[in-house]
């Protein structure tokens, strides 16, 4: 009976680790998708800006404006990508820590499996909360990049 309880605890720890791994992969995928969408939107805004500048007249240094806008949008995209990479790295550290703790708790479970099971749940829940915070931070970074790009757009075309 005790062996079955230990086996169940070990299986639950493995399942929790797999769930965290799945959520980590989902976070990476979602962050990448958001970055791709933001990059696409920034490219579209740059193209619109160039097209409108060309419509306004020949006196405008289109090539200079295009280069300036392209540089700015590339900087915004690079900054957003760097922020997402940093957030992903932090999320991976949190996951690695939670995973290592789950492994440690699984090994100790032979003597204290009920107590350790509760502690593992707390650590995994904390890791989940941290991942959720990182997702929210990634979303804020993407929104900030979009707002920055909109600000440039408005600055160039406001009267």
Helix content: over 70%
Beta-strand share of residues: under 5%
So what's the CATH class? Mainly Alpha
Average residue-wise pLDDT = 79
Can you describe this structure in just a few lines?
The chain is mainly alpha-helical.
Describe the structure.
- This protein is an all-alpha fold and 159 residues long.
- It has a single domain (2-157), classed as Four Helix Bundle (Hemerythrin (Met), subunit A) (Up-down Bundle).
- The chain is built from two helices and no strands.
- It has helices at residues 2-56, 62-157.
- The longest helix has 96 residues, at 62-157.
- It is rod-shaped.
- The N and C termini lie far apart (78 Å).
What are its keywords?
159 residues, mainly alpha, Four Helix Bundle (Hemerythrin (Met), subunit A), rod-shaped, 2 helices
Secondary structure: elements and pairs:
Layout: H1 2-56, H2 62-157
Helix pairs in contact: 1-2
